[in-house]
Design brief:
22% helix; seven-stranded mixed beta sheet; Rossmann fold
């Protein structure tokens, strides 16, 4: 079959990035189908997004509405993928959170090679582990029960440990060598299962591929049962990075609009300017200030005599003051008395809107 997006892919190899070639991808798509009208698919190292865009196009032709999600560490590839997929996070996969069991299909072509070893021997593992295994473990919780995995890794990483992990977590496992032989890739299909008992037959089959004893090539025409991507519904689905840079935040706001942020409710949170206020008759004491802050009366935009401009929001938290008293008795003994007194501590937090180097800085007055 002819693919739709390969002409858009630059497909350069850099930093362990080996994009899925067109022939292999076409044969993978021939093995996939859908169950249900809405499916969600994920590629946690999506590169430029071309491969997952092809998967989405194929599953759409099968009759489903497909949401394609991606994660990519490289900035250039990530921004290319944002134009190809529904949502792409420019992030390290370890900084991404998602709803467990929320993906109907995991397309995993991870970076190849060894991770950085723990030279200080502070971690659980003293030696460097393979990146393929690290990505596989990280994404285990993403796939729904009955969801489909497509895993593309060099065949020689399928040792006893990796084969056991796959057999423990997936059933209906099949393995083939990719028709493109440059990177010696194996293509593995599987269906996520609930039982954690590894199938000895699957383990043996995968290890045989790892040793090079089997070299069945991914067929051009799929003759077996199709791997059907299930419909996955999550009432409160989330998929986001815990760290985000300013450029990506601006892009995301431009895509989703301000209705998905708190800007449309700005007046609800900082609406004191619309209310009539009167100066107090006498100077406010600290407890007056605490009550005003606790009531949310000290909020809004304030300006200083030198042109300073701050957006402030008052708050109050309960602290504790400790007092220690030591008494000496006639017999020489001593008594130590510690008294803890609760007190309300007013806090003002502000965003600096004054033009200059400190624009946007967060200020805390306590």
């Amino acid at each position: 079959m002819a693919l739709v997006f390969p002409r858009l892919a630059r497909n350069f190899i850099k930093n362990g990035y080996f994009p899925t070639d067109e022939v292999t991808l076409a044969r993978i798509l021939a093995a996939l189908d859908v169950v249900g009208g809405e499916v969600r698919i994920l590629d946690p190292c999506c590169g430029e997004g071309v491969a997952l865009a092809e998967v989405r196009h194929h599953l759409t032709e099968c009759g489903a509405t497909v949401q394609a999600l991606g994660v990519e560490l490289d900035q250039e590839r990530a921004w290319h993928a944002k134009d190809m997929l529904n949502v792409v996070l420019h992030s390290d996969i370890n900084d991404v959170t998602f709803t467990p069991r929320s993906m109907g299909l995991l397309f995993l072509n991870p970076p190849y090679g060894d991770a950085v070893s723990d030279k200080a021997q502070l971690g659980e593992r003293n030696k460097a582990d393979r990146l393929e295994k690290l990505f596989f473990r990280r994404m285990l919780g993403a796939v729904a029960w009955g969801g489909v995995m497509v895993l593309i890794v060099p065949h020689y990483v399928l040792d006893e440990e990796f084969s056991t992990m796959i057999a423990r977590n997936y059933e209906r496992v099949s393995c083939f060598m990719a028709p493109e032989t440059r990177f010696k890739q194996a293509v593995i299909f599987g269906v996520r299962k609930r039982s954690d008992r590894p199938d000895p037959g699957v383990m043996g089959m995968l290890q045989a591929f790892g040793r090079g004893e089997r070299a069945d090539v991914l067929p051009e025409f799929w003759a077996g049962d199709l791997y059907q991507v299930p419909e996955v519904r999550a009432d409160k689905f989330h998929f986001h990075a815990v760290r985000i840079d300013a450029q990506q935040l601006a892009d995301d706001l431009g895509r989703i609009g301000f209705k998905s942020t708190l800007w449309h409710s700005f007046g609800t949170h900082f609406n004191q300017h619309a209310q009539l206020t009167r100066r107090p008759l006498a100077a406010m004491r600290p407890w007056h200030l605490a009550l005003a802050l606790a009531a949310g009366q000290l909020s809004g935009v304030v300006e200083g005599p030198q042109g300073e401009r701050l957006l402030i929001k008052g708050d109050t938290y309960k602290g504790r003051a400790m007092h220690e008293d030591i008494s000496t008795h006639e017999d020489g003994s001593m008594t130590r008395t510690v008294t803890a007194i609760d007190k309300f501590v007013p806090v003002i937090r502000a965003i600096n809107f004054t033009p200059g180097d400190q624009y946007g800085a967060i200020i805390t007055i306590q």
